[in-house]
Amino acid sequence: MESKEKLLKNRVPMIVKTFDIIERLREHPDGLTYMDLIERNPEIPRISIYRILCSLEILRYLEKDAVTGKYCLGAKFIELGRVTESRQDIIRIARPFLEDLCQKYGENVNLVKLVDGEYVRLDQIEGTHPLRVIEMTSRYDDVYSSAATKVILACLPQDECRQVVDEFQFKKLTPTTITSKRAFYKELETLREKGFGVDDEENLLGVRCIGAPIRDHDGYPIAAISVSGPSSRIEGATIEEIGRHLVEVTDSISRRFFAYEPENREALAVGK
Fold first, then answer.
1. Most buried of the four, 41, 78, 186, 237, by CB within 10 Å?
2. Other C-beta atoms within 10 Å of 78: how many?
3. Residue 230 and residue 133 in contact, taking contact as beta carbons nearer than 8 Å
């Protein structure tokens, strides 16, 4: 995290003022008028308050009552709240399972989500082995070579999967990285059949990763859990063992918390 001094030096005054207004409105659910906000924010010029209100109303972050002239927080904040709530729920729900997996295998365990075609790590527990993999907190260039995101893609509806894959600029990160769209789709077919995905040193030589999806009640992949570690420890029968166990864990999470039924697994399969 950046130092507080550096953050303060690089803050944008208008954004700070905007959130001052938002906070005032959050404190008054029934809304405030333009004049109310001027009185409560004397440090902000009137014209700035007016421009902030107009901009937020256009973007649907604020709603204005035509009769009272009062502004209140709009529908967009409800949408953002749902996204944040969902994100926190999956982290809270998955955490005990991540801990159990780490204790069982001693390897790094990750909770991963695919957001707008990008790899986002929501949570991670580092392995307990003296020799373990040190991973970056978030990577945005390895969607096509990550076990977790590959298995998420494999579970997406066909059109949505193709929309994401069409944006890939395949780069050869290691000698085993898949670099053609045709080979990548073939890989996704294999992952769907097995139920779990494998990064076979495709991101980094000497490191393997295995992932399985968490699904909602419709079978849609909302996240994935992966186990990663040195390829010297994750090899041969161990890959299959971890993979099968991961599928059991993620299916259990999906059923218990998201009402997923495994027999619906094929419903969203790419190409169906």
1. 41
2. 9
3. yes
- Tokens representing 174 are 């290691």
The residue type found at 180 is S
Strands 108-115 and 118-125: antiparallel
Q: Which amino acid is at 58?
A: I
CA 224 to CA 150: how far, in whole Å? 10
Q: Give me the mean pLDDT over the 36-53 stretch.
A: 95
Encoded tokens for 254: 């999906």
Q: Residue length, the chain?
A: 272
Beta-strand ranges (E) seen in 74-163 are: 108-115, 118-125
Q: How far is CA 35 from CA 43, 53, 54, in A?
A: 14, 12, 14
Supply 57's token pair: 């109303």
pLDDT at 264: 52
Short-list 255, 271, 120, CA closest to 192 = 271
* Phi–psi pair at 5, nearest 5 degrees: -60, -45
Residue ranges of domains in the chain, CATH in brackets? 4-73 (1.10.10.10), 84-268 (3.30.450.40)
Which string of DSSP letters, residue by residue, matches 219-239?
S-EEEEEEEEEETTTS-THHH
Q: What is the pTM of this model?
A: 0.65
Q: CB burial class (10 A; 0-12, 13-18, 19+) of residue 147? A: buried
